[in-house]
Amino acid sequence: MDMETNTPLDSMLGSICIVLVETTHPGNIGAAARALVNMGLSDLRLVRPQAFPSPDATARAASGEALLSAARVFSSLDDAIADCGLIVGSTARTRSVSWPVMSPSEMAPVVLDASHQQRAAILFGRESRGLTNRQLDRCQLFVTAPVDVNHASLNLASAVLLLAYELRKTALLRNGSAASDRPTMGKDLLATSGMVEGFVAHFERVLHAAGFLEQPSDKLFRKIRRIFTRRALEEDEVNILRGVLSAIEKRIEGL
Question: Distance between CA 53 and CA 51 in Å, rounded?
């Protein structure tokens, strides 16, 4: 298939990155790269892959070999998504903490809205167990494919292709619509993942200083964290919250 020249469609999809976390089989990385090229996405990020670069990845990439060669490898998930605003986690598992879960078709317009102003990321976990709870804590929303409940596990590259297809389909529909008809996420920039993580660490520090978290409780703090991260925060909101925390810290230090 011939490669497309640069178009408004490319611009719509160009700010969306796909992040593969701790991928076990290098062939799946290559197959995912091929899927992204087929759907017009170009930003592939890898977090602690078990084997990469790899001949198996290159062989499976086919027409996506150039994208695969440009993939960036990170030592931590936080580093991989530090420049991203909206973070979406793909998961097939039900968890005890409630949060918004969307189908792929519901997810696509939300991600495209967010990517108008800054990068958005979609995370995929290890083949055997998906994303961990701590990795999902970095996300504002979650996407689950409506597959048969008795056969819920998708091949990693298939899952990437499914979500990338929905993004491209929605972008194609929007590309033929007037800009004024498109929904938006708002004019204010979203806080990047790096800014949000800085706020969360600051908040935890203040809770310890105030005596609220005298005994460590991962479960409790995960619930507290979700109060602030169940939706995408804006830069101004994070700056205001950090200012409040700094004022509290000064008062505690003066006691």
Answer: 6
Task: Catalogue all structural domains in the chain, each as residue range(s) with its CATH number.
Answer: 8-181 (3.40.1280.10), 193-254 (1.10.8.590)
Q: Of 25, 35, 32, 17, which is closest to residue 55 (Cα–Cα)?
A: 25
Q: In whole angstroms, what is the distance from residue 58 CA to residue 17 CA?
A: 20
> What's the burial of 121, exposed, middle or buried (CB within 10 Å: 0-12/13-18/19+)?
buried
Question: How does pLDDT run along the chain (255 residues), one tens digit per residue?
Answer: 344 456 778 788 999 999 999 999 999 999 999 999 999 999 999 999 999 999 999 999 999 999 999 999 999 999 999 999 999 999 886 554 466 789 999 999 999 999 988 899 999 999 998 999 899 989 999 999 988 888 877 899 999 999 999 999 999 998 876 444 444 445 578 888 888 888 888 988 888 888 877 666 777 877 878 788 777 888 898 888 888 888 888 888 876
